[in-house]
Amino acid sequence: MQLDRAQALRYLGYGAAAPDARTDALLDECERELKTLSTARTVHRVYSDVYITEESSTIGGVIFRSRDLAGTLAGCSRAVILCATLGSQADRMRLRCGQTDLSKAAVMDAAQSACIEQICDRFCERFRGSDEADGLSLTARYSPGYGDFLITDQPKLLALADATRRIGLTCSDSYMLLPQKSVTAVIGLTAGEPRCGDRCSACENYATCRYRRQIG
Description:
NADH Oxidase; 4-stranded antiparallel sheet; 3-stranded antiparallel sheet; elongated
């Protein structure tokens, strides 16, 4: 996978600014190492029993009390639960960097964050053209921690996708995903117009967030 360097630089706080030569070289080094990853995995499950109100969403009989998630899924007849991880090998990579070169550790962390986002984006691209999509349009994916979608809902998503058994993805007592560079998300399927716009532009913190994606 070719690293999305612009996204990695945003995670490093560069915004639209050009990186210095040292950071640029470290990105090259981290990208080469990330190409050796063998533990990256995704798992998903499509649910047709989806019920949406203004304040909650019920997927597979599991209730999520989030107005923001309900807004994302409004008008959707189905929902996809997506879980993705770079795996334990990625965690070991960052640990080794932290023991020898703190600058590289920071760049590796940003590069891995960009990498897991790319994996999720590519999943959505592939799914959109698959038989599972059944000709329906996808919403943007929405994850715990965005808006009022509580991070305490992580275990529900892991269970709905059977992610612990299938790809070894778990969460800690504080609801942080393990391995750390992992994502859980809900994606709506709708017969209406495509609604897969950039999640950043809809965030209430877009104007002040230093890590936001550049729109347009």
